[in-house]
C-alpha cells in the first residue's frame, strides 16, 4: 500500500499561501507515489481553494469550515488536524515553516509522540528513505536528518522547494467535513492588522532591505520605489528598526524573519552575523554599501561600493528602461 501524506495548507483571506503549494511538492519528494491529501481550514467556504490545491498536486482535499477557524489558535486547528489524522492514519504530515506551522506542528507531534524535522530547505533520497536538509547555527552550517520510525512530520522553509506547476486539468475530490470544535480555552478577540505593505516578505522573490545606513524613515522611500519596480518587498535590519526608520515587522535576521528570495539587495547594512542568519541563503545577494570593508560584501554575489542615495536612483532609472 502506498503512503498517505497530509499537507496542511494555510489560507489567508481566501488565498492559499504559496508555501502550502511548496509543501505539496515536498510531500511528492518524500514519497513520489504517496497519496497527497490536502487539509484546508477556515471560517469561509473553501471549495475553490480546494480545487486550487488539487491543481498544485494534491490528490484530494478535506476542507473544514467553522467559525472557530476564523483566526488561528493551536487548540482549534489542533483539534481538527488530530481528528483528521485519527480518521485517515496518514504516514506523515507536511506544512510550511511559518508562524502557524512553527506553533502547530510541535504540539501535534508531541500529542502523537511523533518526531518532527522542522525548517527543511531541501530533501534528498537515500534509497527509498527521505533525508531532510536544514540550516543550523543561524545558517552557518546544514545538517541532514532522517526519521527513525515511519511517521514523517516536516515543516519546510518558504521559497526553497519549488511548487509544482499549476495544472487545472488535475482532478481530485474536495470533501467538506463537519468537525465540531469545542471547549476552546483561548479565543482571538481581535486581530489588528497593519496596513498592507504589498508583497509578503517571507514569500517575496525579491527583497530590498535597508539598514542603519538609510538614515531615516524618509530614506526608505527610494528602497520602496526600487522594490516596486522589481515587484518585490522591503525588509530591514534590526539596526534600522531600532532606529525607528521602519516597523519591526520588516526585520530580517536571527530575531526577525528568515527569508530566501531569488534576489536580496542589502542597502546600507553592515552584515552582522545576526542579520546574515535571516538572509544568507538568498539565491543572489547584492550589497550596496559605502564601506568597502563591510562584512556584507563577504556574503554578496555582487557588491556596489558607493553612497546608497546615489546608487539607488541610478538603479531605478536603469531598471525602468528594461
Ligand atoms: P550598522 O551596523 O550600523 O551598519 C550600517 C551600514 O550602513 C554600514 O556598513 C555603513 O557603511 C553603511 N552606510 C552608511 N551610510 C551609507 C550610505 N550613505 N550609503 C551606503 N552605505 C552606507 N540584526 C538584524 O539585522 N536582525 C536580527 O534579527 C538581529 N537580531 C539580533 C539578536 C541579538 C541577540 C543581538 C545581540 C543583535 C541582533 N541584531 C540583529 C543586531 C545586529 O547585531 C546589528 O547590530 C544590526 O544588524 C546592525 O544593523 P545595520 O547593519 O543596519 O547597521
UniProtKB/TrEMBL annotation:
Ranges of residues in domain Electron transfer flavoprotein alpha/beta-subunit N-terminal: 5-190
SUPFAM superfamilies to which the protein is assigned, alphabetical: Adenine nucleotide alpha hydrolases-like, DHS-like NAD/FAD-binding domain
Regions crossing the membrane: none
InterPro entries in alphabetical order: DHS-like_NAD/FAD-binding_dom, ETF_a/b_N, ETF_a/FixB, ETF_alpha_N, ETF_asu_C, ETF_asu_C_CS, Rossmann-like_a/b/a_fold
Pfam families: ETF (PF01012), ETF_alpha (PF00766)
Keyword line: Electron transport, FAD, Flavoprotein, Transport
Keyword set includes Protease: no
Family: Belongs to the ETF alpha-subunit/FixB family.
Protein name (database record): Electron transfer flavoprotein subunit alpha
Originating organism: Oceanobacillus neutriphilus
Highest classification ranks of the organism: Bacteria, Bacillati, Bacillota, Bacilli, Bacillales
Gene transcribed to yield this protein: etfA
Amino acid at each position: 500500500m502506498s503512503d498517505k501524506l497530509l499537507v496542511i495548507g494555510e489560507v489567508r483571506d481566501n488565498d492559499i499561501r504559496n508555501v502550502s503549494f511548496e509543501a505539496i511538492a515536498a510531500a511528492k519528494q518524500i514519497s513520489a507515489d504517496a497519496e497527497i491529501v490536502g487539509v484546508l481550514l477556515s471560517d469561509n467556504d473553501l471549495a475553490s481553494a480546494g480545487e486550487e490545491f488539487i491543481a498544485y498536486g494534491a490528490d484530494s482535499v478535506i476542507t473544514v469550515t467553522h467559525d472557530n477557524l476564523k483566526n488561528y489558535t493551536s487548540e482549534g486547528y489542533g483539534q481538527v488536524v488530530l481528528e483528521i489524522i485519527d480518521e485517515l492514519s496518514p504516514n506523515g504530515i507536511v506544512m510550511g515553516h511559518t508562524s502557524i506551522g512553527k506553533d502547530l506542528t510541535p504540539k501535534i507531534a508531541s500529542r502523537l509522540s511523533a518526531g518532527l524535522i522542522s525548517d527543511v530547505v531541501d530533501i534528498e533520497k537515500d534509497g527509498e528513505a527521505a533525508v531532510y536538509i536544514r540550516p543550523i547555527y543561524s545558517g552557518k552550517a546544514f545538517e541532514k536528518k532522517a526519521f527513525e520510525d515511519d511517521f514523517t512530520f516536516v515543516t519546510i522553509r518558504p521559497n526553497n522547494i519549488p511548487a509544482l506547476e499549476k495544472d487545472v486539468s488535475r482532478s481530485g475530490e474536495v470533501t467538506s467535513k463537519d468537525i465540531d470544535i469545542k471547549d476552546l480555552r483561548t479565543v482571538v478577540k481581535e486581530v489588528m492588522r497593519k496596513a498592507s505593505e504589498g508583497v509578503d516578505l517571507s514569500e517575496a522573490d525579491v527583497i530590498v532591505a535597508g539598514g542603519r545606513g538609510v538614515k531615516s524613515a524618509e530614506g526608505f522611500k527610494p528602497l520602496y520605489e526600487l522594490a516596486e519596480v522589481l515587484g518585490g518587498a522591503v525588509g530591514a535590519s534590526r539596526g534600522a528598526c531600532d532606529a525607528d526608520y521602519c516597523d519591526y515587522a520588516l526585520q530580517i535576521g536571527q530575531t526577525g524573519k528568515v527569508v530566501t528570495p531569488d534576489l536580496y539587495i542589502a542597502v546600507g547594512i553592515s552584515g552582522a552575523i545576526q542579520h546574515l542568519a535571516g538572509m544568507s541563503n538568498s539565491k543572489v545577494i547584492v550589497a550596496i554599501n559605502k564601506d568597502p570593508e563591510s562584512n556584507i560584501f563577504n556574503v554578496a554575489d555582487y557588491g556596489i561600493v558607493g553612497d546608497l542615495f546615489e546608487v539607488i536612483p541610478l538603479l531605478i532609472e536603469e531598471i525602468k528602461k528594461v
